[in-house]
Amino acid sequence: MTADDRWRDLRTACERLEPGAELVTPVSERRFRIGATYGDRIVVRFTDSGEERPLGREQFELFVDRLADGPIDVTQLTPGIEPYATVLTLSDEYAVDDDAVTYAPEDATAGETPYLVSPAAARTRPERLHDDALLLADHLERHEVDDPGSLETDALADRYVLLSDVQRGADRLRREASEVVLDRLGPGQSLRGRFGTVHRTTRERRRPKDEATVLDALDEHGVPHEWVLGIDPDKLDVVVAATDLSEAEVYDVDEQVYAQKTGVDEDEKFSRLQGLADRIDELEGEDGEQLRAELEDLEDRIDEALSAD
User: For the chain, what are the domain ranges?
Assistant: First the structure.
């Protein structure tokens, strides 16, 4: 597909959105709407400030060129780049897999952006994690926990999706909490809470100095360069692609089979949550008192266990 075709398809995808549809940036979670599309730019308007911002075609092309080198982790994007990634996921050429935008024209989920705001998605990150954890707890209560093989296919798929969403949401919040924890911890210090202890730990990660420095150091100690010089995988890829050298001659290829979450029905989850909320509201009188007594008893047992440590 040419650059002109790609730009035309992206503009068409923007124009196909329902009137008033909102997108949300993946990290800063700023909501915006597509205002208009032109030959050289797509204009967006941010909901929180009313600010209009043109997203230039050239910048989109730079982003696409970077995708040619591999998926882009959206959690590492700066606020200024987030809208470009968000809009690009409307195109049928690109998909989002575990917080990474990837070029995937053959992927059935390409163009099904997770950044399109629906009533279910218009929640904060902590709210989504809370709701997903509640759905997971309800699922584990209703289905066999220790024997996934006994689950019906739809229930097994639901379990995998919920576990994936809870893990992703928890990892994001854990990273944010980690930054605050480290601010409060000095070297060798620990923080103790009701559920456990956090300790400040330091790990060393080594990476080689630049090549000239390393080779000079080897020369000073009489170490042959051949002992440390290796094969550059990037250059090897180019050789395989540009010559008749086969991949099997220079690579040992191990095939890894894994499950991949390719879609989440947020509206269905939202509907299920509403059903749980209705059930909780119906717990009145004796049933409600019993539930509260059980929760209080659980808290007491946790406190006793912690005080015994």
Answer: 3-103, 125-199, 211-250
